[in-house]
Here is the input.
Amino acid sequence: MAPSDSPVPVIGLTGGIASGKSTVGGMLAQLGAAVVDADQLAREVVALGTPGLQEVVAAFGKEVLDGEGRLDRGRLAGRVFADPEERRRLEQILHPRIAELARDRLAAARGQLAVYQAPLIFETGREGEFQGVLLVDCDPELQLARLRARDRLGEAGARARLAAQLPAAERRRRATWIVDNSGSLEDTRAQLHRLWEGDLAALRRSP
Ligand code: ADP
Here is the structure.
């Protein structure tokens, strides 16, 4: 996915699990950005009846499906989480399909600014593909609490997922802009508004 494929400027939006990427993506969409969500694309490429799902089943067996033949993402995640070899196998199936879909969606993006929302931008060394990367930062204990509440995870499970991610300091060092989502939604919205009228005003197209 190269931003030059898109008719509008593209920025990345990233952050740790449950830091608030979707929340911030929704706010940017309200401000007038076209948001492409990598997690959503990851669901689309393995939706019922897709070649992607067929490949996943060929690789991991029917036990990763639920009673209706849909992918049971929790079961699959549980299986690949602890096994780097299995995870690589899954990524080899998903990543090219997600990248292709992302390319299509960004090429079709309309509006003032396109936003590619993805958990792994720094980890995959892709920040150079964007005009800048906006990091959603969050106090780690708050992030843990939000993750547990949203995904109904126990303390150990939630901590394991957080530990698997890039250290926050490293992310902050690599970000172009940072929004701190440790406060209220209103507080986050105010920060985004300042960014939208500030640095992003120079970048985005006039409405
Ligand atoms: P991500 O997309 O990074 O995984 P989400 O946007 O889904 O994170 O946010 C994680 C959880 O925290 C969600 O349940 C969301 O509603 C909640 N949340 C996000 N930001 C705030 C906030 N500022 N105050 C309270 N709850 C929040």
Residues 15, 17-23, 146, 150, 181, 184-185, 188 surround adenosine-5'-diphosphate (CB under 6 Å).
